[in-house]
Amino acid sequence: MIQEKIGKRIKELRNKMGISQEELAFRSSIHRTYIASVEVGKRNLTVTVLEKIVNALEISLSEFFKF
After folding, report:
1. Per-residue pLDDT reduced to its tens digit, 39-62
2. Could you please report the per-residue DSSP string of the chain?
3. pLDDT tens-digit series, residues 15-26
4. Cα distance between residue 32 and residue 65, in whole Å
5. Chain center to CA of 30
6. What is the fold of 2-64?
7. Domain residue ranges in the chain
8. Measuring CA to CA, which residue among 4, 17, 24 is closest to residue 63?
């Protein structure tokens, strides 16, 4: 399912940066529990939320979707 693939990608990139869910939540202005549920594929992201997360991960949307 696409939600799970996106969640795994977020977790992969977050771990690559060496930051916690809490730090990603702070950087993206999204609650930590929301980040956690996204990473396990329980949330269906809006484009706006995905953009906030991608910006917090310091990559482009096109780079994000290279998986």
Report:
1. 999 999 999 999 999 999 999 999
2. -HHHHHHHHHHHHHHHHT--HHHHHHHHT--HHHHHHHHTT-S---HHHHHHHHHHTT--HHHHT--
3. 999 999 999 999
4. 22
5. 10
6. 434 Repressor (Amino-terminal Domain) (1.10.260)
7. 2-64
8. 17
Sequence letter at residue 65: F
Task: Indicate the burial class of 35 (C-beta count within 10 angstroms; 0-12, 13-18, 19 or more).
Answer: buried
Tokens of 5: 């693939």
Contact 52, 28 (CB under 8 A): yes
Distance CA 23, CA 47 (A): 21
